[in-house]
Design a protein that fits this description.
The protein has 593 residues and is an alpha+beta fold. It is 39% helix and 23% strand. The strands form six sheets. Strands 7-6-3-8-2-1-9-10 form an eight-stranded mixed β-sheet. Helix 2 runs parallel beside helix 6, helix 13 crosses helix 17 and helix 15 packs across helix 16. The structure holds adenosine-5'-diphosphate and magnesium ion (MG).
Length: 593
């Protein structure tokens, strides 16, 4: 016989290798098991974790369960009830697809499964399956039950190298919690419960609406600071809950995407959502949002990632367009609400402050007793008192959104009276937004209008920047900058954008050059560069900070604000103005029952 060097791997080894892809960490096991429970139509799923999954992962469901034969088969590679031909792969409606999860998982732990098939006639005999490190599975009779319970003990006990790749328990546990939060959000009808080392980490009742589930998982604060919007675009249906830009987040963990009900974390989707928020969010912050995306299953290939996290779209531009459009439409609607939300927060804070100071002054023993009749006259001002001041303000009620300016406060805020209350404008934040929107509009039309400096400003960048500038000095031209080389590491700024003529020229040029450099060659669009540049710039507060404004200037600013897109937030997502309605003012002063 030939001396064969090639042999087929024993199935236990093949499974362990597959496990390397499917079972990256304890959280991936949780995900696979919970997805199986969802596919088995469970109405509640309970997960117990010990030592971040290293000691125990238990998933208990009340789903359809399995009979003995199926239970044994489920641990075989490529054993699945979910697809039967390669064609099925292109229209997957369940969470499973290649029958790899259970055998892979069972090959790297001590595995136990209790299950019984719930037929219409009642549950058949229940079975207990044991499997140690991928050995031949053993079945024995078990007590009757509804659904399936799987216990994973001693994860990676037989593959110590994999164990060493695990991060700290705290990290692994956090990833498990995040995984379950996403699954729970995606499936509001299913009850979820997660306990880690006996501590409850997540608890959501079954049969919830999307809204109720969002409150349970994202918190009431998210719910009261978001706008729900849905849209159909190119056959893609997006239903999203979008947080106000002011509720941005430091990382991307608060962006949830579900495609046809499955949890997806996909770079294209994240980038599309960020693009939707681009104009209203500082570039290194992330929005918070929950998006349900429904599309023809044949348009999305979920079979590209072993852990089924990433997907491939047949028409990526459709899905991007759908997400960007939906987010933008939601943000446009927010304009009004941003200020209202901020206002109600401000109102709460003010109420707290007011009642405290009131209580204090009332307690003063020797406070002069108030002349009640004067007080009464002052506070219950007759209705015609208002009509006396209205004409003086020359106030065209109803036409003006932000009202007429009354005063500038601390060179920082403009107080205005609107038709139904008062408006406080952060002049700096508002000017920032107006400038940005103007520059953006102009930049779309062509190069920015530049203004030559009386004497060119000397600029001595470091070696790396100098090298870049020698090659790319023209790159600043569209933005209204003229740069002249004067030496190896010496340049001059000869002209700046007319709209920013009052700003320090070298600083501006340096920041723009830095933005352009980090944008790479030409890959990034101009408005993106503009956003990054001005985003950083305005942080330094050099646009109209603390300037005394004449009444005409105040009014011009208000009118300009009304004409400006996305005016409710500055470039960093902070509000530009807050409103207090008469009703709110009344309740602030306790004038309403
Ligand atoms: P896949 O989910 O890709 O089909 P798995 O290895 O995850 O592959 O599961 C194999 C099969 O075992 C599934 O197709 C399903 O029929 C069955 N199964 C797994 N978990 C459960 C469960 N909790 N309840 C009922 N059936 C299950
Ligand atoms: Mg599965």
């Amino acid at each position: 016989m030939d001396n064969l060097r090639i042999h087929i791997l024993p199935s236990a080894v093949a499974n362990q290798i597959a496990a390397g892809e499917v079972v990256e960490r304890p959280a991936s096991i949780v995900k696979e098991l919970v997805e199986n429970s969802l596919d088995a139509a469970a109405s509640r799923i309970r997960v117990r974790i010990e030592q971040a999954g290293k000691k125990l992962i238990e998933v208990d469901d009340d789903g359809s369960g399995m009979g003995k034969g199926d239970a044994l088969l489920s641990l075989k590679r490529h054993a699945t009830s979910k697809i039967s031909s390669a064609e099925d792969l292109y229209a997957i409606a369940s969470h499973g697809f290649r029958g790899e999860a259970l055998p892979s998982i069972a090959s790297v732990c001590r595995f136990e499964m209790l299950t019984a098939r719930s037929a219409a006639t009642g549950s058949e005999d229940a079975v207990r399956i044991l499997c140690e490190g991928g050995s031949e599975a053993e079945a024995s009779p078990a007590a009757p039950r509804k659904g399936t319970r799987i216990r994973i003990r001693d994860l990676f006990f037989n593959t110590p190298a994999r164990q060493r790749f695990l991060r700290t328990e705290r990290t692994e546990e956090a990833v498990i919690v995040e995984t379950l939060r996403a699954l729970a959000l995606a499936n509001p009808a299913v009850g979820f419960r997660l306990d880690c080392d006996g501590r409850k980490r997540l608890d959501a009742a079954s049969g919830q609406t999307r809204e109720a589930r969002i409150v349970a998982i994202m918190g009431a604060d998210f719910m009261s600071n978001q706008i729900a919007h849905s849209e159909v675009y190119d056959g893609v249906h997006v239903a999203g809950f979008f947080a106000l830009p002011t509720h941005h987040h430091r990382d991307g963990g608060r962006m949830h995407f579900f495609i046809n009900g499955r949890v997806v974390r996909d770079k294209q989707l994240i980038s599309a959502l960020k693009a939707g928020y681009r104009d209203v969010l500082f570039h290194d912050r992330f929005p918070q949002a929950v998006l349900w995306i429904e599309m023809d299953p044949a348009e999305v290939d979920v079979n590209v990632h072993p852990a089924k996290r990433e997907v491939r779209f047949r028409q990526p531009q459709s899905i991007r367009g759908a997400v960007v459009n939906c987010a933008r439409a939601a943000i446009e609607q927010m304009g009004q609400q941003v200020s209202d939300a901020t206002t109600s927060q401000a109102l709460k804070a003010m109420r707290g402050g007011f009642s405290a100071s009131r209580a204090a002054s009332f307690r003063q023993p020797d406070a002069p007793s108030a002349d009640t009749s004067t007080l009464q006259r002052l506070f219950s001002a007759p209705a015609d008192a208002e009509s006396v001041c209205e004409p003086q303000l020359d106030y065209a009620a109803g036409n003006l959104h932000l009202g007429m300016p009354l005063a500038q406060i601390h060179r920082c805020y403009i107080l205005a009276q609107s038709d139904d209350g008062i408006v406080l404008v952060d002049q700096h934040a508002a000017a920032e937004r107006i400038t940005y929107e103007k520059l953006k509009r102009d930049l779309e039309k062509g190069p920015l209008v530049c203004q030559a400096l009386l004497s060119a400003a000397d600029w001595q960048p470091d070696a790396a920047m100098s090298a870049w500038l020698h090659e790319h000095a023209d790159a600043l031209l569209p933005f209204g900058f003229e740069i002249e080389a004067r030496g190896e590491e010496r340049f001059a700024v000869a002209a700046v954008p007319a709209m920013l003529a009052g700003e320090p020229p070298v600083e501006m040029a340096a920041e723009l050059a830095a933005s352009l450099r980090s944008a790479g060659s030409v890959a990034e669009g101009r408005s993106r560069v503009l956003e990054r540049w001005l985003g950083n710039r305005a942080c330094k507060g050099s646009i109209k900070a603390g300037r005394l404004l004449k009444t005409e200037e105040q009014e011009a600013l208000l009118r300009e604000m009304e004409r400006t897109a996305n005016i409710a937030q500055c470039n960093h997502g902070r509000p530009t103005y807050v409103r207090l309605s008469l009703n709110e003012l009344d309740s602030l002063f306790g004038r309403r029952g």
